[in-house]
Each structure stands twice: as structure tokens, then as C-alpha cells.
Amino acid sequence: TFDGGLGIVQDGNHSWISATWSSTPALTKSFMNTYLMLDGTPYTDQAGYATKPFTEEFINRDHRVAQTIFTPGFKRITGGQGIPVPPDFTVGITGYQPRKFMLDDTRSDNVDVSDNNIILFRFAEVLLNYAEAKAELGTLTDDDWSKTVGKLRSRAGITGGLNTKPATVDTYMQQRYFPDISDPVILEIRRERATELCLEGFDWNDVMRWKAGKLLEKKYDGIYIPQLEVLYDFSDDGKPDVVFSTDPNYVGPQGVFTLFVGPIMSNGAASNYQLDDDGHTLIYLKTEQKVWEDKLYFHPIPALDLVKNPNLGQNPGW
């Protein structure tokens, strides 16, 4: 997807960093909670995990967290220097802004020239496909686990649970995502597939294959905000960079991004950024009602094909 000599470029970096050029992709807190600790234990086993601030929730976590989103201490190159940068809430709307596939140098942020290749196929997908197929057949062995999920987790810095398949259900994964799954192996393979292949275009097909469309009705939950109108240093450079308020007239100090999280903006319109009922968790599009329809598990039969052959019939719901 890139060849400087032939002038073949792509605009992927611009899509990740621009609030107007892209669909402003961002990850949810519920998903970020699924990344393991470095010792292989669930993050959600940590006391007070749900109320940890952004500046603390990535300590001793799976290295893929910092390879996937902006985390405290993340730097980008500006003018030849590495500069710590916080999440941009106009792009990373939940506070968990993707950095995967983003170029290190900011020179490409506002131009449609990216000199990095786009992943089309990689070995991690092969390993995960193999692991999932064997798990669904009920034939996955400890050796299979070690050679697939264990290898991927070891590469991400995880030290525990690499050589034997799990025997205990992670209740967070089960309750939040797959209440009908009681096999701990399948739950962990789905976790691994999501974290390893995050943002690589597999999510829709996975949801279809797992018949998990109802997940799309879940709210877009973001970071936990301990206090309003308190300055936060999300870039970990010793200087505050963001403040949150429910007062539409509040303005933070110069150089600090102010995010309004009240329900109604000064012009009377509903705010896209609001707080959950706990008064602390950021929610994007809180009032938007999302409804899943089972017909979406199937594509409609094209009208032209039905004209050619009425005996085909239409898929349910279409």
C-alpha cells in the first residue's frame, strides 16, 4: 500500500488523527477493561478497577494497550523531537484514542500521504483462527494453547497462564460480553482475538459469527473522571492538559483543553459528551437509543437477483 518511487500512498494517518476527516474512532472503557495484567490475571480482578483514573489504569498492563491507544507518556515527533501528547477528545471521543497505524511524526497529520503499510494478513490471525476452531470443536489442548494464545500473550509481555488453557471463567468477560458462554477457553480466545486484532477490521465478522449483535446496543462508555474542574495531566509531562466541567460557561486555563460533560449545552442542544448515572464515567451519545435487529446477521438478497429468480426468496426481516 506504499511505494514512494511509484507515488503510491494512502491517507490512513489523516483518518486516525482528524476530527473532520474520519469517523473519530475510539475504544470504550468496557473494552479497555478486557486487557490483562502483565501477570496474566484479569484487570477487573483489581480492587477499584472501575474507578481508576486514566493516569493509573494502564500500570502493569498488557503491552498491547500502549501499542493501541494514547497512554500517559506516549510521544509523537514534532520538529524532530518526541513530544508527550494527551488524547484528543475531539477525535478519541471516549478518551481512549487509537494510535495503532498512526505515524510517529506529526508531519503527515493534515495531508493524505502516509508511508506505512496497511496490514492485510498476519500470522497472529492464523494462530487465533486455529485456536478458536479447535476450542469450538472441544479439542484444544494445552499444547495448542501454548502455541497460539500463549505465544501471542508472551509477545505482549504477559508472563502468566501461557502454557495451560484456562480453567476458570472470567466473570467480567462473561457478564459484560458473552453471558451464554460458560467455557473459559472460548471466553479467553475471544478476549485474545479482540485485543490482538483490535482495529484491524475483524470485529463485525466476529460479532456476526458469534451471534453477538446485541453488544452493539451497549453504551459508548469512556474514561472515569474522579473530579470536575480539576486539572489533569494525561500526557504525563508534568503539565495539565485537560479539565472537565458540567458548567457550559466554565473555561479552563490557557493551554488546557476544556471538555463540557453536562447534559445540555449553552445553545440548548443535548451534549454529545455526558456523565453516566454514577456522575463520573464519560458517556458519548448518552441519549442515543441503539437497537439491534437480528436481520442484520444476513445480507438482503439483491433486488436484481430476485427479479432474475423469484424462487430465491428474501432473507428474514428484509
Quick tags:
318 residues, alpha+beta, three-stranded antiparallel sheet, single chain
* Strand residue content: 5-15%
Considering DSSP H and I runs of 4 or more, what fraction of the residues is helical? 10-25%
Could you tell me the mean pLDDT?
94
Strand order of the largest sheet: 3-7-6
Question: How many DSSP E strands?
Answer: 7
H and E order: HHHEEHHHHHHEEEEEH
Give the helix/strand class: alpha+beta
| Number of H- or I-type helical stretches | 10
Distance from first to last alpha carbon:
37 Å
Question: What summary fits the major beta sheet?
Answer: 3 strands, antiparallel
Indicate the radius of gyration in whole angstroms.
22 Å
Q: Write down the overall geometry.
A: globular
**Unreliable parts:** none
Explain this structure:
With 318 residues, the protein is an alpha+beta fold. The protein has helices spanning 12-17, 29-32, 64-68, 123-137, 142-147, 149-155, 171-176, 184-196, 203-209, 303-308, and strands spanning 75-78, 81-84, 220-224, 242-245, 257-260, 273-275, 281-284. It is built from ten helices and seven strands. The strands form three sheets. Strands 3-7-6 form a three-stranded antiparallel β-sheet, with no helix packed on it. Strands 1-2 form a two-stranded antiparallel ribbon. A two-stranded parallel ribbon has the order 4-5. A hairpin with a 2-residue loop joins strand 1 (75-78) and strand 2. It is globular and about 60 Å long.
